[in-house]
Amino acid sequence: NNDVYLEAQIENTAATAMILERVELEPSPNYTVTSIHWGDAEELSGMYLKPRDIRQFLFCLTPKDAPSSVYKDMTNIGKLDMSWRTSMGERGRLQTSPLQRIAPAHGDVRLSVENLPATVPVRKPFTIDCKLYNCCERSLDLQLELQNTSTSLVFCSISGVSLGQVPPNGSVSFSVEMLPISIGFQSISGIRIVDSFLKKTYDHDDIAQVFVM
């Protein structure tokens, strides 16, 4: 999915101990935020930090509904806001400038694995559900081609199937069937998406892994 994870490390660089009272991420209007933490609420509301102590915080930002072309430009994720109190009772607060994420380089199309079993039995076919997003500003006439790049995991589905025309910011779902030949972790590769208009091929290798038992 398009979730963004932000890890923040807060260090007490002062010469005295302090109580870290609040660490929050104020998301930009394009995102909603969830704080991922361990420990009880009392500990989180007043963390004791000795000089040079470090605490880690993790936030998950979920983009609000937006077309793929717009999401690529949603680089501003928000501001980190924190407040503390020293052992002498002095209070402090710091808010960062807007934090930026690295925009994903999807190109014209983006492939997402929607459903895949974690483990599969050897020599028994299994199905992968995928979704293809058109991230460019023109319609794409797409065709699915499958290349067996490994002898450990081979395609059972027919290659050369038409996925039809996908409008800008649109998507199309498809499924492929594979047969595992060897046990162990196997990487799924060999999915090729062909743009019939421009005769351009988009290679999708190492899109996921499956454990064959």
UniProtKB/TrEMBL annotation:
Species of provenance: Teladorsagia circumcincta (Brown stomach worm)
Superkingdom to which the source organism belongs: Eukaryota
Identification of the protein by name: Trafficking protein particle complex subunit 13
GO cellular component, one term: TRAPPIII protein complex
InterPro entries per the UniProt record, alphabetical: TRAPPC13 (IPR010378), TRAPPC13_C (IPR055428), TRAPPC13_M (IPR055429)
Chain ranges of the Trafficking protein particle complex subunit 13 C-terminal domain: 117-212
Domain Trafficking protein particle complex subunit 13 middle residue range list: 2-104
